[in-house]
Amino acid sequence: MLLDEHELYGLAPLRLRLLMRPRRQSPADFSSRDKGLGLEFADYQLFQPGDDIRHVDWTHFHKDGRLVVRKYDQHETVAIHLMMDLSASMACLGEDKPRVVKRLCAALAFCLLHNGAKVVLHPVGHPSLRRRFSAATQWETCQGAIEALPVGGVLTLVDEVRQFCYASSRRDHLIVLSDFLTDHEDAGLASCLGDLSHRAVLIHPTCAAEVEPALEGGLTLVEAESAGTASLTVDRQVIAAYQQAYRQYYDGLRQDAERCACRYLEVACDDPLHRQMESLAPNGVLNL
Amino acid sequence: MTFHGISPTAALALAAGTVAVLTAAHLLHRRYRRVVVPALRFWSAALRKHRQDTLGGRLRHPLTWLLLCSLAGLMILGMLQPAFSGDWGPRPWVVVVDRRASMRLPCDADSCRLVRARTLARDFLGRAAGPVGVTLISVDHTASVLAGADDPKAESLYHLARLTCTDQTDGPGMEQALTLADTLVRREPRTGVLVLTDHSPAGWDVPASLRSHLTVLNVAEKVDNLAVLPPEIAPMADGTYQLKVWLAHWGSEPCRATLTVLHDGQPGETLPVSLAAGQMRSYDFVFGADQIAFLSVRADREEAYTLDNHAAPPTWQRRRVFLADDAPLALQAVVSANPAYQRATAAAEADVCVSVARSEARETGAYGPVQVTAALCPDEDLRRAWMTDLFLGPNVSPLAESGSAVVLLSTADTQPLAVRSDTVPTVVTLSASLFDDGATFWKQPQCPVILDAVLNPAANGPRDTGLSHWSGVRYSDLTSPAADAQTAQALPAVRTHLPLARGILWVALLMALCELMCYGRGRIV
Fold it and tell me: Which residue of A has its CA nearest to B33?
């Protein structure tokens, strides 16, 4: 089991809040940020040509002579794609990081399902293992599916995101858990995010061995996914240069994500789950 | 610094080859540990920054290359077997100038013996290597130190130029000067002693340790002298000994001579030498360890008027002393430390047999002085000086009376403490009370001198004992028919090397261990 009962109990109060604009709405389970055709009154708005005349507030017209229409809370049903990266680059620093990603994904799926959202489990590189869960009663199945996901392989994140852009509904949300290390150039991931018209949250699980690698001496470095090698002598200066390049890459990714109206979040693998969820859902609200 | 291993040229070639091989190996071979990382893109940036994968980048890794090269250098240095042999720097000299009344006598048309002595000493100071290291002592009725070894040579020359004769004709001055010189020789074994006098050295009390360092120049004769200065013997790493003989020439014309090394009195290796006017040079010979005790050196001038000095020189031989294994340590130390003695394994092979007797102790109950008899030291002043602070413990065990033996040391009530028989070999019997813990005899600085007189009757006995007593003294005026001896005796003033090879190899071993540890931990590649 990825999550025990105590952890599930802690996750239960989390609420989902969508930051998405309404598209073709129909009454649904969730309150949207925008106003639409819901049941609960939200606000008045001056009548514009094209507005439904049934929503004109005639009482208000009698009082001040202006035509205003009533606006109601928009309710919608959304599908949230959980795109998980369990490639070799995530697994090369030990078994902890893939498990942390699985636990984090399971926690997100739990919250989403219990807030009425539909969850599409989207393991990167394994299209045959894609699953869809639409009710909270499917949580156990969802957890089992996440736990059974294989670890390793080559990351095809850019291709998967591009495919998501073209294939999925624009109402769908995307949550990506990955280290975002692709064999494409940096511009490939940036352009991919630029093409994304969906709401997306990029979650980067980081660990200490990745930020401050405890390496020294003559090393032959082998890249986990491409098996490319490079030999060098690692000393403090090399480590400093590594950290500078590391920070520069992920700062660039953060800027690209903000430019594309996405959110980029870093989660420390060494933190406990509740701390990780606090960083993702401050004040108990999961903003998507 | 001397080298006793491979030749320096071979060491240089070996070092160059080793460094070349190490450099090539360092460039070609590196040990890398394989580590799987998520991405190379971050490391590639570091790689580009430091360029460690390039040829120059590898050379820039200083620790490995330096460690290997220094390790190789240390090992090659160890193979050179360097040693501090003590040959660095100028050799210190003690110059004793006699200025007693006889030195006022004229020797040439317009000069006296003192002027000649001053001239000779000034020439010697000018030729002696180095600006310092000459102790100048003048002798009249007492000895006076005019300049010390630490003073500049100019001060010695200054005092030398102002040296005048005195009216004193005799006195203990020369003995004091020799005692002082002996002290300086003991402090620095390389010290040579040059005495400029017109007195015969036959009546001097020359300490045994000074004999091998002493050169006496007779200024009563012609100035054209060729002196064989005290030689030095130094052990080599291969077990042989190096004999370094110094020749000094006083005169206005160049001089040719033949330097002959005598083995047990028999001429051995010869070396023709040529000395310019007023020149001093050294010549090296190499001998085995078994030959070194029987060596002497003779210089023969080739001029026709030179004295016929083919008479066999007095052969110096180390006096063989038999000591029982349980002899007191002080006695063993005295015999071992004196180069004039050699421990014999059997009494039959010895020149003198020493026994320590412990007879029945008498209840004296107090400390008593040790008396030095006239048989041991005829000179009363010297005898009194010897007896300073010599005491015995409370329970003295004197030796039994023996009619034929000569009593050398006794108690205050004439009970014998040391006797010497006239038998062959000579038997010396010492009372064990002399070496008790309560006795001060063996703790006093004059103890070695007294024991030397006890063990060697010729050294302090009657003055008519002949040349054997003066075997260590060079009376170096080769042109004078009256000269006693014309040889230089090579006494084993052995200096040991300070071996550096072992320390160097230990350092190399430690460095190799450090390198192995760093290599194992991946600190170096």
Answer: A219
Among the partner-chain residues A228, A241, A245, the one whose CB lies closest to the CB of B50 is A241
Between β-strands B406-410 and B371-372, what pairing exists: parallel, antiparallel or unpaired?
Answer: antiparallel
Which B positions 92-111 lie with beta carbon below 8 A of chain A? Answer: none
Q: Is B506 on the interface with A (CB under 8 A)?
A: no
What are the structure tokens assigned to A1, written together?
A: 């089991």
Name every chain B residue with its beta carbon within 8 A of the beta carbon of A214: none
- Whole-model pTM? 0.40
- Each of the 525 residues of chain B gets a pLDDT tens digit; together they read 666 667 778 888 888 888 888 777 766 666 678 888 888 888 877 776 555 555 555 555 667 778 888 888 888 888 877 766 554 556 788 999 999 888 877 776 667 888 888 888 888 877 665 555 689 999 988 999 988 888 877 888 888 888 988 877 777 888 899 999 998 888 877 788 888 888 777 677 788 778 777 888 777 765 566 777 766 777 777 878 777 777 777 666 777 888 888 777 788 888 888 888 767 788 888 887 777 767 777 777 755 333 333 322 333 467 789 998 888 888 888 887 776 778 888 888 888 899 888 777 666 666 788 889 888 888 787 888 888 888 888 878 888 776 778 888 988 888 888 998 878 788 899 988 888 888 888 888 778 788 888 887 665 443 333 332 233 333 333 333 333 333 333 333 334 445 677 788 888 888 888 878 877 765 565
Distance CA A142, CA A170 (A): 24
Q: In what order do the strands lie in the sheet with B192-197?
A: B143-147, B134-139, B93-98, B192-197, B214-218, B474-475
CB distance from B254 to chain A under 8 Å?
Answer: no
Q: What residues of chain B lie within 8 A of the CB of A90, using their CB?
A: 38
Q: Is B381 on the interface with A (CB under 8 A)?
A: no
- Helix or strand holding residue B259 (H, E): strand B255-263
